[in-house]
Amino acid sequence: MARIDLNHIRHAYGANPKSDKDYALREVHHSFEDGGAYALLGPSGCGKTTLLNIISGLLHASHGQLLFDGKDVTRLSTQERNIAQVFQFPVIYDTMTVYDNLAFPLRNRGVPEADVDRKVRETLDMIDLASWARRKARGLTADQKQKISLGRGLVRSDVNAILFDEPLTVIDPHMKWVLRSQLKQLHRRFGYTMIYVTHDQTEALTFADKVVVMYDGEIVQIGTPAELFERPKHTFVGYFIGSPGMNVMPVAVEGKRAKLGEQVIDLPGAPKAEGNGIELGIRPEYVRLGAKGMPVTIRKVEDIGRHKVVRASLEGREIAAILGEDDHVPADPHVTFDPAGINLYDKSWRVEMGA
Amino acid sequence: MEKTWNNKAWFMVLPVLVLVAFSAVIPLMTVVNYSVQDTFGGNQFFWAGAEWFEEMLHSDRFWAAMGRNLIFSAIILAIQIPLGIFIALNMPRKGWGVPVCLVLMALPLLIPWNVVGTIWQVFGRIDIGLLGYTLHALGFDYNYVNDPFDAWVTVIIMDVWHWTSLVVLLCYAGLVSIPDAFYQAAKIDGASRWAVFRYIQLPKMQRVLLIAVLLRFMDSFMIYTEPFVVTGGGPGNSTTFLSIDLVKMAVGQFDLGPAAAMSIIYFLIVLLLSWVFYTVMTNYDVEK
Ligand SMILES: Nc1ncnc2c1ncn2[C@@H]1O[C@H](COP(=O)(O)OP(=O)(O)O)[C@@H](O)[C@H]1O
Ligand SMILES: [Mg+2]
To answer: Less packed terminus of chain A by CB within 10 Å, N or C?
Structure first.
């Protein structure tokens, strides 16, 4: 296991990148701590796979430096970096048995056959395919194949890190849950450094101690699930995490007050930024619906079981609020914002509010 | 919905049936017909039963030609299949090299058989041919007209030059269908170049290889035009393959009965060996 440092990594697939647009990774400067369980969360096309491939050495970054435990590995091959990686779609060796598939990464590295056997059996139990060991891998279902792919990632115990690239995409929901818990257990037991890529926030938030949110070739925030929820550093994180996402609205700031059209909102502090491009973000969980406050018109109420999502219109903008299952929408609806949930953004990035 | 049941659709396949009947079934039947009869010219035929078949199966001339065919096909497969795979593995997968390589590979396939024969006939001549003359000038005792070994080498090189690209193109088609993820996974798993070939590329090429082996076997087993043009079956009988012998017998000597019997035996052997190849190659993985 190792600590992984990414030093100003940039990557462009094209030969002559000119502007930032040509970079699949604009600039990533970050450290993955030894033994950490990280989730890499972001929309499709934001560069997650690119980043993983750079860590594993399948790709060599156009700029920047990569360190494992302080040792420069930027120029090393995949083989020399000793990383396990599981891909989004199953890759299996058709002509081999399930057992041989799992043994393959070990045998390639000259592990003694007795150890191979022990490790493979352990892994087979973990992925629940022990009874299939002697079967040809060819005839298996997609999720069994993906479990084999996963197994090949887990069978090596001496790796620097295990990278998962949306590994559960093709697996059915129940099995997804089981496998994810097993990965977590495994992490607790062996302390592997794990990076788990996903575009599914529930998956990210349940798997990881630290979630790394990527957007458009950059890391926009790294934090615990709670930090991402309470204090999104970028409006994108606000939208992307939470369901429904954060309400973001343009405001004009004057001291400790923000003006939204005709309405005035009291802020918990005076933000350090002023002028154009200031937005106020508040999660639906912090929008209180009642008889006092700013007048809204209700558009729709969605009952989703544990609570209701109220879609309303405030000063001509869509706003979502969350209402308890037993609460009722008042006759003359108004909203207030809980100051604890107010964040301010200047050109999409969060600004601190002074006292 | 109500369906109209009638058999009118069969008329649609009628043209094909007629075509196949005239191009394959009727000629084949004629051959079967000849093979069981004897004639002394004119238009008079007598029933001969299995006589011609017995004669053929006891004829040294037939078995000698058959032996040459088997050896020839074996050599052709032994050279063209590995060479084809090797070239396909080394062809570029992207960039400007791809169309260039594909065109180069397709060129020999586009040349008519007899032209290929003529090219090599001239190319190998020791008086005016570039190859023959050069070899001679360098002190090699090369002469496909007199030396059976040289004749064989010439015919084999000619066939390799003409048909290896077919194997290459088929293998290449199999190779480009392999997703990148397989190579990436192999790198992660620390697979050697050989392991990548054995466990990823070869299995993916298996189907096209089956087709390549069948086509190259049938085609080389039925080789006629090229050796006919280059060596005419000689020197002596050294490059007289079954097809050449067949034509000599049927057209040259007008022995229709034996020639027909030989055709049928020949046909059955091609069919049998193709079936064997097919069965072996498709069952290879199932059994293990
Ligand atoms: N092999 C490639 N060649 C060129 N562009 C690529 C390649 N792979 C990915 N890209 C581009 O790089 C960006 C990031 O892709 P990727 O890392 O696969 O995103 P993600 O895994 O987050 O969906 C995308 O805009 C994608 O189009
Ligand atoms: Mg991806």
So the answer is: C
- Is residue B44 assigned to a domain? no
In a domain, B1, yes or no: no
Structural domains in chain A (count) = 2
Sheet-wide strand order for A278-282: A247-250, A278-282, A342-346, A349-351
Distance A166 CA to ligand 1 centre (A): 14
Query: Nearest CB to B199: which of A77, A84, A93?
Result: A93
How far is Cα A317 from Cα A330, in angstroms, rounded to an integer? 20
> pLDDT of B23-80, one tens digit each?
888 888 888 877 777 776 666 777 777 777 777 777 788 888 888 889 999 999 999 9
pTM equals 0.79
**What's the half-sphere exposure (Cβ side, CA atoms, 13 Å) at B39?**
18
Whole-number Å distance, alpha carbon A233 to ligand 2 midpoint, is 23
Strands A257-260 and A252-254: antiparallel
Name residues of chain A where pLDDT drops below 50. Answer: none
**DSSP secondary structure string for all residues of B43-94:** T-EEE-TTHHHHHHHT-HHHHHHHHHHHHHHHHHHHHHHHHHHHHHHHS-SS
A53 touching chain B per CB within 8 A = yes
Q: pLDDT band at B287, cuts 50/70/90?
A: very low
Say how many C-beta atoms besides its own lie within 10 A of residue B3's C-beta.
5
A contact test, residue of B189, B198, B283 with most A CBs within 10 A: B189
Domain range for B120: 61-287
Instruction: Find the mean pLDDT for residues B184-200.
Output: 92
Contact map slice: B 154-213 vs A, CB within 8 A:
179, 181-182, 184-185, 187-192, 195, 199-200, 203
Asked if B287 reaches chain A (Cβ–Cβ under 8 Å), the answer is no
Residues B226-270 pLDDT 10s: 777 777 777 777 777 877 877 777 777 767 777 888 888 888 888
From A209, A235, A261, give the residue that closes a domain: A235
Q: Show the tokens assigned to A265.
A: 């909102």
Using alpha carbons, select from A48, A12, A55, A50 the residue that is nearest to residue A32: A55
Q: Which of B182, B184, B195 has the CB atom closest to A108's CB atom? A: B195
ipTM of this predicted structure: 0.81
Domain of residue A313, residue span: 246-351
Q: Is residue A181 located within the same domain as residue A206? A: yes
Number of domains in chain B: 1
Residues with CB under 5 Å of ion ligand 2 are A 49
Q: How confident is the model at residue B288 (pLDDT cuts 50, 70, 90)?
A: very low
pLDDT value at position B286? 53
**A81-110 confidence digits (pLDDT tens):** 989 999 988 899 988 999 999 999 999 998
The response to whether residue A44 sits with its C-beta less than 6 Å from ligand 1 reads yes
DSSP at A238: H
Nearest residue (by CA) to ligand 1, atom 27, is A45
- Closest chain A residue by Cα to residue B206: A95
